Amino acid sequence: MWRDFIGVPSIERVPVHSSLSHFRTKVSAELFYSILFDLIAQALKLKDFLQPILTGIDSRPGWANVNGNKHKRCSCSDRSQCDCEKTYSDPDATCGVQRTKANQNKFFIGYRKHSIVCPSPKGPLVLFSIILPNDTADVKVMLSLIEMMKKIEGLKVDYLVADLGYFNANDQREALLSHDVAVVTGIKKNTVIPEHCSSKGKPECEQGHALVFDGFDRDTHTAWFRGDPAQCAACPLHGLCDQQFGYSFEENPLFHGPVPQDSMLQEQMLKFRKQVELAFAQESNQLTSVMKHKKVPVRETKRVEKWVILRDAFRLVERMIQHIRATVLPQNHVANIKKLEEIQAEQLSLPLAG
Fold first, then answer.
1. Which domain covers residue 291, as residue numbers?
2. pLDDT 10s digits, 186-219
3. Are the C-beta atoms of 169 and 250 separated by less than 8 Å?
4. Residue 145 domain-assigned?
5. Collapsing DSSP states into helix, strand and coil, what is residue 333?
């Protein structure tokens, strides 16, 4: 089946590894992305497969295929005296710091993979990724990924959840005002909270009573809150207060967006972000089982980027096949086909009648 899929049905014409390497060299990353985006558009048409209303951004390190320390790789006759820069065996790889996690080294040599992740019945699924150097700040990545999502036919994302490392107030405004995508995250202990909000970022009235979210006006970009009837009934300002409070999204997008802080909707989104982190850890463990020290098998940014695109595409195709087998094909489909094959083989082995 795989030989038929790649167009070489004859066993005598199976391409060798050098042919595949030549193919990756000639085809650009842009073409690989267009193929991947076409596969995503097909996956969106499958019933109950992808749920793109909510997506997430996360990143993980990619270990480069390097050996040893930096060395001078110039053509100077005396390298000990020249001023040429030392590089790794992968000239594009840099040394970076990864998040502190159990059983992992603090420093690594390689790249950082930033991915758009979407919910699916079998757990979070990476739609596509970009490869950037380790010294690229996460805050510069979010808008680029959102703009790439717009190239996928049929993909409409309403909410994007990420950690605070990807956040910038201006980018958060542009994401909603220009791309109609609400970016959501939680707050940390050192986050500057507005005076009218509680420690969890939930707006309160002058009497310190928590307000109830009453919707977001996308025309004026205003988050509306109303007073809690149980609290307002005994409030000394009852009858003097309008019990309606509007806060501008453009003034403080982190606290006055379509998804309020400390709400049930935000809690579900942050729960999905934790699932994304676990899925990335699982992917890292899978790489350990197939590659020594989790290293990518190619060098230089262009080739690593193509390798990552193909890996995301094959993972998507694999999930699509599993989903179709579980929802579209009849039960015991594979077993029935094998039984038919055995019957046909038995019939062909019978002697022909004279």
1. 23-186+261-319
2. 888 888 888 888 888 888 888 888 888 888 998 8
3. no
4. yes
5. helix
Burial class (CB in 10 A: 0-12, 13-18, 19+), 126: buried
User: Mean pLDDT over all residues of the chain?
Assistant: 83
* Domain edge (last residue) among 238, 259, 280: 259
Same-domain status, 162 and 250? no
123 vs 120: CA distance, rounded Å? 5
Question: 150 and 226: one domain?
Answer: no
- HSE-up (13 A, CA, CB side) for residue 283: 22
Residue 37 lies in a domain: yes
Alpha helices in 133-250, H assignment, sequence order: 142-149, 169-179, 229-232
pLDDT in tens, 250-274: 888 888 888 888 888 888 888 888 8
Q: CB-based burial of residue 170 (10 Å sphere; 0-12 exposed, 13-18 middle, 19+ buried)?
A: exposed
Residues 147 and 240 in one domain: no
Tens-digit pLDDT profile for residues 21-42: 777 777 888 989 999 999 999 9
Position 287 scores a pLDDT of: 57
Q: What was the pLDDT predicted at 283? A: 66
Is residue 167 in some structural domain? yes
Please indicate, yes or no, if residue 99 is contained in any of the structural domains: yes
**Domains contained in the chain, number:** 2
DSSP letter for 87, please: E
Measured between alpha carbons, how far is 213 from 197 in angstroms, rounded to an integer?
A: 13
The model's pTM is 0.79
